[in-house]
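Support request, please re-run this one:
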Amino acid sequence: MSSSRKVILRYGAGRLRREKDELAVEEPLEIRLDTRPLVVTMRTPGHDDELAAGFLHTEGLVQTRGDLRAIRRNPRNRAGNSLDVFLSADVPADLSRLARRGYASSSCGLCGKESIQALQRRLKAISSRLKVNPKLLAGLPEKLRAAQPTFERTGGLHAAGIFTPEGELIVAREDIGRHNAVDKVIGFGLLHGLLPFDRHILVVSGRASFEILQKSLAARIPILCAVSAPSSLAVEFARASRQTLIGFLRAERMNIYAGAGRVRPMVSS
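Re-run finished. Output below.
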Protein backbone atom coordinates (compact mmCIF):
# COMPACT_ATOMS: atom_id res chain seq x y z
CA MET A 1 0.00 0.00 0.00
CA SER A 2 1.67 3.22 -1.18
CA SER A 3 -0.79 5.69 0.39
CA SER A 4 -2.97 5.95 3.48
CA ARG A 5 -6.01 8.09 4.29
CA LYS A 6 -6.03 10.07 7.56
CA VAL A 7 -8.55 12.46 9.08
CA ILE A 8 -7.11 15.98 9.36
CA LEU A 9 -8.26 19.54 10.02
CA ARG A 10 -8.08 21.69 6.90
CA TYR A 11 -8.19 25.50 7.14
CA GLY A 12 -9.48 27.58 4.25
CA ALA A 13 -11.85 30.46 3.54
CA GLY A 14 -11.70 31.45 7.20
CA ARG A 15 -12.93 28.14 8.62
CA LEU A 16 -11.68 24.76 9.85
CA ARG A 17 -13.09 21.58 8.34
CA ARG A 18 -12.51 17.95 9.25
CA GLU A 19 -11.57 16.06 6.09
CA LYS A 20 -9.73 12.97 4.93
CA ASP A 21 -6.31 13.44 3.39
CA GLU A 22 -4.23 10.89 1.50
CA LEU A 23 -0.63 10.51 2.68
CA ALA A 24 2.36 8.72 1.20
CA VAL A 25 3.29 5.65 3.23
CA GLU A 26 6.72 5.46 4.84
CA GLU A 27 7.70 2.14 6.42
CA PRO A 28 10.96 0.31 7.18
CA LEU A 29 12.25 -2.50 5.00
CA GLU A 30 14.92 -4.84 6.30
CA ILE A 31 17.07 -6.36 3.56
CA ARG A 32 18.79 -9.58 4.61
CA LEU A 33 21.53 -11.26 2.61
CA ASP A 34 21.51 -15.05 2.88
CA THR A 35 19.40 -14.59 6.08
CA ARG A 36 21.96 -12.19 7.62
CA PRO A 37 20.74 -8.63 8.37
CA LEU A 38 22.26 -6.21 5.87
CA VAL A 39 20.46 -2.86 5.96
CA VAL A 40 17.20 -1.21 6.99
CA THR A 41 15.84 1.53 4.76
CA MET A 42 12.75 3.68 5.12
CA ARG A 43 10.77 3.29 1.93
CA THR A 44 7.32 3.38 0.36
CA PRO A 45 6.07 -0.23 0.04
CA GLY A 46 5.91 -1.59 -3.48
CA HIS A 47 8.48 -3.15 -5.81
CA ASP A 48 10.57 -4.17 -2.80
CA ASP A 49 12.36 -6.86 -4.81
CA GLU A 50 13.54 -4.19 -7.25
CA LEU A 51 14.65 -1.97 -4.38
CA ALA A 52 16.73 -4.78 -2.89
CA ALA A 53 18.22 -5.80 -6.24
CA GLY A 54 19.03 -2.20 -7.14
CA PHE A 55 20.62 -1.53 -3.77
CA LEU A 56 22.82 -4.61 -4.04
CA HIS A 57 23.84 -3.67 -7.57
CA THR A 58 24.71 -0.06 -6.79
CA GLU A 59 26.71 -1.22 -3.77
CA GLY A 60 28.71 -3.59 -5.99
CA LEU A 61 27.52 -6.87 -4.46
CA VAL A 62 25.75 -8.17 -7.58
CA GLN A 63 26.27 -7.41 -11.24
CA THR A 64 23.72 -9.47 -13.19
CA ARG A 65 20.41 -11.29 -12.70
CA GLY A 66 22.36 -14.53 -12.53
CA ASP A 67 24.06 -13.36 -9.33
CA LEU A 68 20.71 -13.61 -7.53
CA ARG A 69 19.34 -17.02 -6.64
CA ALA A 70 16.11 -15.80 -5.04
CA ILE A 71 14.38 -12.83 -3.41
CA ARG A 72 11.53 -13.60 -1.02
CA ARG A 73 9.78 -12.39 2.11
CA ASN A 74 11.27 -13.42 5.43
CA PRO A 75 8.79 -16.10 6.55
CA ARG A 76 9.28 -15.22 10.24
CA ASN A 77 8.38 -11.56 9.76
CA ARG A 78 4.60 -11.20 10.05
CA ALA A 79 4.65 -7.50 9.18
CA GLY A 80 5.93 -8.33 5.71
CA ASN A 81 8.72 -5.75 5.86
CA SER A 82 11.72 -8.07 5.87
CA LEU A 83 13.18 -9.39 2.62
CA ASP A 84 15.60 -12.27 2.15
CA VAL A 85 18.00 -12.07 -0.79
CA PHE A 86 19.95 -15.22 -1.67
CA LEU A 87 23.06 -14.99 -3.84
CA SER A 88 24.15 -17.63 -6.31
CA ALA A 89 26.69 -20.08 -4.96
CA ASP A 90 29.60 -18.62 -6.95
CA VAL A 91 28.97 -15.00 -5.89
CA PRO A 92 31.06 -13.85 -2.90
CA ALA A 93 29.29 -11.75 -0.29
CA ASP A 94 31.75 -9.29 1.22
CA LEU A 95 29.66 -7.57 3.87
CA SER A 96 32.54 -5.89 5.67
CA ARG A 97 32.21 -2.76 3.54
CA LEU A 98 28.49 -2.49 4.32
CA ALA A 99 28.48 -3.50 7.97
CA ARG A 100 29.14 0.03 9.20
CA ARG A 101 26.09 1.39 7.37
CA GLY A 102 23.60 -0.38 9.63
CA TYR A 103 20.66 1.96 9.09
CA ALA A 104 19.73 3.95 6.00
CA SER A 105 16.98 6.54 6.25
CA SER A 106 14.75 7.43 3.32
CA SER A 107 17.04 10.30 2.36
CA CYS A 108 20.56 9.50 3.52
CA GLY A 109 21.84 7.33 0.67
CA LEU A 110 25.57 6.93 0.95
CA CYS A 111 25.81 9.36 3.90
CA GLY A 112 29.46 10.12 3.19
CA LYS A 113 30.72 6.85 4.67
CA GLU A 114 32.58 5.76 1.56
CA SER A 115 35.03 8.09 -0.09
CA ILE A 116 34.68 9.32 -3.65
CA GLN A 117 38.16 7.97 -4.38
CA ALA A 118 37.11 4.44 -3.36
CA LEU A 119 33.98 4.69 -5.49
CA GLN A 120 35.94 5.81 -8.53
CA ARG A 121 38.31 2.88 -8.14
CA ARG A 122 35.30 0.53 -8.23
CA LEU A 123 33.22 2.39 -10.82
CA LYS A 124 35.03 3.44 -13.99
CA ALA A 125 34.17 6.69 -15.75
CA ILE A 126 31.49 6.70 -18.45
CA SER A 127 32.66 6.36 -22.06
CA SER A 128 29.26 6.46 -23.81
CA ARG A 129 29.04 8.48 -27.05
CA LEU A 130 25.27 8.92 -26.69
CA LYS A 131 23.97 12.29 -27.88
CA VAL A 132 20.46 13.65 -27.37
CA ASN A 133 18.43 16.62 -28.50
CA PRO A 134 17.63 19.15 -25.75
CA LYS A 135 14.05 19.38 -27.04
CA LEU A 136 13.66 15.66 -26.36
CA LEU A 137 15.03 16.10 -22.84
CA ALA A 138 12.61 18.96 -22.20
CA GLY A 139 9.64 16.63 -22.66
CA LEU A 140 10.81 13.93 -20.24
CA PRO A 141 9.70 15.47 -16.90
CA GLU A 142 6.11 15.62 -18.14
CA LYS A 143 6.27 11.96 -19.17
CA LEU A 144 7.65 11.06 -15.75
CA ARG A 145 4.96 13.07 -13.99
CA ALA A 146 2.28 11.18 -15.93
CA ALA A 147 3.70 7.96 -14.45
CA GLN A 148 3.37 9.14 -10.81
CA PRO A 149 -0.13 8.07 -9.68
CA THR A 150 0.65 8.15 -5.96
CA PHE A 151 2.21 11.61 -6.17
CA GLU A 152 -0.99 12.84 -7.80
CA ARG A 153 -2.94 11.65 -4.76
CA THR A 154 -0.49 12.62 -2.02
CA GLY A 155 2.08 15.11 -3.34
CA GLY A 156 4.59 13.32 -1.12
CA LEU A 157 6.75 11.03 -3.25
CA HIS A 158 9.87 11.26 -5.36
CA ALA A 159 10.11 9.53 -8.72
CA ALA A 160 12.76 8.16 -11.05
CA GLY A 161 12.38 7.09 -14.66
CA ILE A 162 14.58 5.40 -17.24
CA PHE A 163 14.16 6.61 -20.83
CA THR A 164 15.55 5.56 -24.21
CA PRO A 165 17.40 8.08 -26.42
CA GLU A 166 14.12 8.43 -28.33
CA GLY A 167 12.26 9.48 -25.18
CA GLU A 168 10.42 6.20 -24.56
CA LEU A 169 9.78 5.49 -20.88
CA ILE A 170 11.15 2.07 -19.92
CA VAL A 171 10.24 2.13 -16.23
CA ALA A 172 9.17 4.66 -13.59
CA ARG A 173 9.02 4.14 -9.84
CA GLU A 174 7.93 6.27 -6.87
CA ASP A 175 9.24 6.29 -3.31
CA ILE A 176 9.44 8.48 -0.21
CA GLY A 177 13.24 8.39 -0.68
CA ARG A 178 14.75 9.70 -3.90
CA HIS A 179 17.61 7.21 -3.78
CA ASN A 180 15.12 4.37 -3.21
CA ALA A 181 13.25 5.36 -6.38
CA VAL A 182 16.54 5.18 -8.29
CA ASP A 183 17.38 1.79 -6.76
CA LYS A 184 13.96 0.53 -7.86
CA VAL A 185 14.41 1.46 -11.53
CA ILE A 186 17.95 0.07 -11.53
CA GLY A 187 16.68 -3.07 -9.80
CA PHE A 188 14.02 -3.40 -12.50
CA GLY A 189 16.78 -3.29 -15.08
CA LEU A 190 18.81 -5.91 -13.24
CA LEU A 191 15.89 -8.32 -12.74
CA HIS A 192 14.83 -8.01 -16.39
CA GLY A 193 18.31 -8.36 -17.86
CA LEU A 194 18.40 -4.78 -19.18
CA LEU A 195 21.61 -3.60 -17.53
CA PRO A 196 23.80 -1.80 -18.24
CA PHE A 197 21.68 1.27 -19.01
CA ASP A 198 24.58 2.69 -21.01
CA ARG A 199 22.36 4.16 -23.74
CA HIS A 200 19.65 5.49 -21.49
CA ILE A 201 18.61 8.62 -19.62
CA LEU A 202 17.70 8.80 -15.93
CA VAL A 203 15.21 11.48 -14.89
CA VAL A 204 14.54 12.24 -11.21
CA SER A 205 11.75 14.40 -9.88
CA GLY A 206 13.74 16.24 -7.23
CA ARG A 207 17.30 17.40 -6.77
CA ALA A 208 20.39 15.55 -7.98
CA SER A 209 22.52 14.54 -5.01
CA PHE A 210 25.83 12.73 -4.84
CA GLU A 211 24.28 9.34 -4.07
CA ILE A 212 22.02 9.61 -7.13
CA LEU A 213 25.09 10.18 -9.33
CA GLN A 214 26.86 7.26 -7.67
CA LYS A 215 23.94 4.91 -8.28
CA SER A 216 23.52 6.02 -11.90
CA LEU A 217 27.23 5.47 -12.49
CA ALA A 218 26.96 1.93 -11.12
CA ALA A 219 24.23 1.26 -13.70
CA ARG A 220 26.44 2.97 -16.38
CA ILE A 221 23.82 5.65 -17.08
CA PRO A 222 25.47 8.43 -19.14
CA ILE A 223 22.82 11.15 -18.77
CA LEU A 224 21.05 12.19 -15.56
CA CYS A 225 18.37 14.89 -15.55
CA ALA A 226 16.78 16.47 -12.48
CA VAL A 227 13.89 18.91 -12.33
CA SER A 228 15.58 20.65 -9.41
CA ALA A 229 19.13 21.61 -8.45
CA PRO A 230 22.22 19.43 -8.14
CA SER A 231 24.54 19.63 -5.17
CA SER A 232 28.10 20.85 -5.55
CA LEU A 233 29.41 17.36 -4.80
CA ALA A 234 27.11 15.86 -7.44
CA VAL A 235 28.54 18.24 -10.03
CA GLU A 236 32.13 17.43 -9.05
CA PHE A 237 31.40 13.70 -9.18
CA ALA A 238 29.64 13.93 -12.56
CA ARG A 239 32.56 15.80 -14.09
CA ALA A 240 35.10 13.33 -12.73
CA SER A 241 32.97 10.38 -13.91
CA ARG A 242 32.29 11.89 -17.35
CA GLN A 243 28.53 11.80 -16.81
CA THR A 244 26.14 14.35 -18.25
CA LEU A 245 24.32 16.13 -15.43
CA ILE A 246 21.36 18.40 -16.14
CA GLY A 247 19.43 20.35 -13.52
CA PHE A 248 16.37 22.62 -13.47
CA LEU A 249 14.92 20.74 -16.44
CA ARG A 250 11.65 22.62 -16.77
CA ALA A 251 9.59 24.17 -19.58
CA GLU A 252 12.25 23.72 -22.27
CA ARG A 253 14.94 25.25 -20.07
CA MET A 254 17.82 23.47 -18.39
CA ASN A 255 21.24 23.97 -16.83
CA ILE A 256 23.99 21.63 -18.04
CA TYR A 257 26.52 21.17 -15.24
CA ALA A 258 28.66 18.40 -16.72
CA GLY A 259 29.06 16.45 -19.95
CA ALA A 260 27.60 19.09 -22.28
CA GLY A 261 28.99 17.26 -25.32
CA ARG A 262 26.12 14.76 -25.16
CA VAL A 263 23.48 17.49 -25.56
CA ARG A 264 23.26 18.59 -29.17
CA PRO A 265 20.40 20.52 -30.84
CA MET A 266 19.16 19.16 -34.16
CA VAL A 267 20.49 21.18 -37.09
CA SER A 268 17.90 22.08 -39.71
CA SER A 269 18.92 21.23 -43.29
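The two ends are 52 Å apart (CA to CA). Residues 188 and 194 are 8 Å apart (CA to CA).
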